[in-house]
Write a structure and sequence with these properties.
The radius of gyration is 26 Å and the shape is elongated. The chain has helices at 2-18, 25-31, 33-36, 41-57, 90-102, 106-121, 149-158, 229-239, 258-263, 285-290, 302-317, and strands spanning 23-24, 63-66, 72-75, 162-166, 175-187, 190-197, 202-207, 211-217, 244-253, 266-271, 274-282, 296-300. A 5-stranded antiparallel beta sheet has the order 7-6-5-4-8. It has a 4-stranded antiparallel beta sheet with strand order 10-11-9-12. It contains 11 helices and 12 strands. By secondary structure, the protein is an alpha+beta fold. It starts with a helix and ends with a helix.
């Protein structure tokens, strides 16, 4: 739904920018496919008026002109909508180049590449890359493999509620969730959605890899206030296990679990192919440990061990 609206707005903007004379509603309706599909004149008029105001909020200057016959026409003059000269220093250009490299999901990669080409054509300085000549194997990337990423990203942008099926780590079957999405965060190589869970009446964080099926958008406005960005990011980190309140003792198979080893407070060899690690213990650690399967054994505390065993049993049941 969000993608269809974006395409409709783009088509309307192109029509208004590409004309030398004002276009009437009738002409615009005949030129844009989404308007042709509008069932009645009233539905078209409401859609057009919303789209026109959305484009104005985005900064497009749309003029309203009345012809000799009294018919109202619309156009967006290019001289009124021309961007000012782009002035970026080397650091800003480097930041834009890095941002374009970060995304490797197909649809976003194409948009980022095209935007960079336009900026460079407009005079953006080329960023010097000290590693380019050496063909460094290290390149910053944020992988996006989950099908839920793009519809959730658009829902966050458009402030649109969504419905999806979500399987918790300790549940055998997914449950339907009605969520007001706030933001997406990447943490430890996984994407998380932070938002307001309508059914539970509370803030929740969902891991995208546990969303099953299709993400469906819904009409309507948010019922809960959206917190500031900093608060949301802190919540994502807390729910994902970043905030540690105590420590845990685990056995880890030798040569495995390097993310766990990097966070270890202490470690020692036990022999027979096992090491003992003391790691920070915060909310979400049990779900993280389950991902390492038989390579991890929780020694203490007892409640963490019980949580991990429960999650493993739920996974085994399917």
């Amino acid at each position: 739904m969000a993608i269809a609206k974006a395409e409709r707005l783009m088509n309307l903007a192109l029509c208004l920018l590409g004309t030398r004379r004002p276009l009437s509603k009738r002409e615009l309706r005949g030129s844009i496919e989404a308007y042709l599909e509008a069932g009645t004149d009233d539905s078209f008029n409401r859609m057009f008026e919303r789209d026109k105001e959305d484009l104005r909020e985005l900064g497009l200057v749309i003029e309203t002109v009345e012809n000799l016959d009294g018919e109202t026409g619309y156009l967006a003059r290019r001289d009124s909508n021309r961007l000012p000269a782009i002035t970026l220093d080397a650091e800003e250009a480097a930041a834009l180049g890095l941002a374009a490299k970060v995304w490797q999901q197909a649809r976003l990669a194409g948009a980022a590449s095209g935007a960079l080409q336009k900026l460079r054509a407009a005079g953006m300085p080329e960023a010097e890359d000290a590693y380019e000549a050496h063909h460094s194997a290290l390149e910053p990337r944020i992988p996006v493999h989950e099908a839920a990423f793009e519809p959730l990203m658009l829902a966050c942008r458009d402030r649109r509620p969504v419905i999806f099926d979500y399987r918790k780590a300790n549940a055998a079957r997914p449950e339907q969730r009605q969520v007001e999405p706030w933001t997406l965060e990447c943490w430890r190589g996984h994407w998380y959605l932070a938002g307001w869970d309508r059914d539970r009446g509370a803030e929740r964080v969902f891991r995208l890899s546990r969303i099953t099926g299709r993400v469906r958008s819904r009409n309507g406005v948010f019922t809960a206030p959206v917190p500031d960005v900093v608060t949301v990011r802190e919540t994502v980190e807390t729910w994902a296990g970043e905030t540690a309140t105590r420590s845990a003792l685990i056995k880890l198979r030798s040569g495995c679990g390097y993310p766990l080893r990097s966070r270890a407070l202490s470690s020692r060899e036990l022999g027979n192919g096992w090491d003992e690690l003391e790691i920070p213990y915060g909310h979400g650690l049990d779900a993280w440990l389950v991902e390492f399967g038989p390579d991890v054994v929780v020694l203490e505390p007892a409640d963490l061990r019980a949580d991990v065993v429960e999650r493993l049993r739920a996974v085994a049941k399917g």
